[in-house]
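Batch job 17 of 40 flagged for manual review because the log was empty.
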Amino acid sequence: MRKYTLLLTLLLCAATFVQARNQPKYEFRAAWVATVNNIDWPSQSGLTVQEQKAEAIDLLDLMVKNGLNAVIFQIRPTSDAFYPSTLEPWSRYLTGTPGKDPGYDPLKFWIDECHKRHMEFHAWMNPFRVAQKADEPLAASHIAFKHPEWIIKYGGKLYFNPALDETRQFIVQVVKDVVSRYDIDAIHMDDYFYPYPVAGEAFPDVIQFTKNPRHFNADQLEDWRRNNVDLTIQLISKTIKETKPWVKFGISPFGVWRNIDKDARGSMTKAGVSNYDDLYADILKWLQYGWIDYVTPQLYWRIGHPAVNYITLLDWWSKNGFNRDVYIGHGLYKIDAKSSIPEWTDPNQVPKQIEMTRENPNVHGSVLFSAIQLKRNLLGLQDTLQHQLYNYTALTPSMPWIDFLPPNKPVKFNKRGRKLKWEKPAFKNEMDEVKRYIVYKNKVGEQLNEADVRSIYTITDGTAIKLERRKGKKERFEFRVTALDRLNNESSATLPETIKW
């Protein structure tokens, strides 16, 4: 029995070692928080401020528990706002009434709570959607009443006309307002550009095309539409970087750029819809031109799908990142023990997807749709995240095309008993400002490996820590500290302090 127990212990230790070794120090681990239709938060409109905050904290704590390091929060679902704005009305998903002040600033609250937990905050906006139903009430102050000529009705919904310079400028104003006023880490947009096609209904922009085709010929309506979206993305990107150069810009498109039967560059898929041909979103162009910093294709299909195989698309996107970060979107909402599709009843489906993502050197993380799903019974996925896949801390990837210079290292690092202290180093500008610190540990006589996640004792935004009491015989450890800037560029380490611990 003792031999069996010893063997089991050794096997568990070996498994833990392998898990740690396979977990990268830099990996994007996020979840979308959808506010449209109260999908994730708040659970329903009309809750009190205290109830909304309590739900937010509960959701954030759940994400931290599952090892996530970023939140993609929908702050503008339908040309409305989850923050005080002079440009757009308060969202009806907060109070139930469009334009009604909820009594606090939800965006600031979420940003602050994310940053307290060392999580990035990506502000998710939908650029063109105005209303989910054409006849739903809009706030009296809505821009649609001031400029009805900007609005298009299609499929029973309302949209900003992507062809107009005025709508582009307005969207850019909204983006600049948020980037200027809030300490966000990124602007994020999803797959909704031109709307998904509605059978039997043509998008009503032929008259606009005829009036203002720009340099496009009469048979190039679709190219003209793609150019409308290109101009929007290019202008948003330029505005973000001119306002705060460190703020990232990411897109989470539909999972198929284009099928190979339409384009030799496309994926070996048979999707019924594609970004390029139906949503007029040329994601590859945006990546190639450097207009966006990361792409998160929504690969909500199973491994082995006959038309849109997860493995095929993972490989395709990994080869088409154009030296920008690629993160993969996973559809947790499909996991169901009662699903008619056997693969979604398999508890290993999503863990396998995440492991495949991690094994691909050109892919840098995963995003889960959506946060509220972590409250469900996901066939043990939470246990797998907490104890196998995400049980060690990871930093969000740095982006050298934005900034590659490391900050200065902490100064005056010293010890007093079990307490370690240091001072914040000087910095030249906001880009270089130190935001957090990594405290490393290693046994005396062993070489510190900063790339090994097991060597990280803690990550903190303070300038002092007190070591936890350690059970068993005391050993001599070396501790070092490095500094992280806004983009997780890391400084060199301080000289070691030795503590018997």
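Reviewer: the log was empty due to a logging misconfiguration, but the result itself is present. Confidence is low (pLDDT under 50) at residues 1-18. Unflagging and moving on to job 18.
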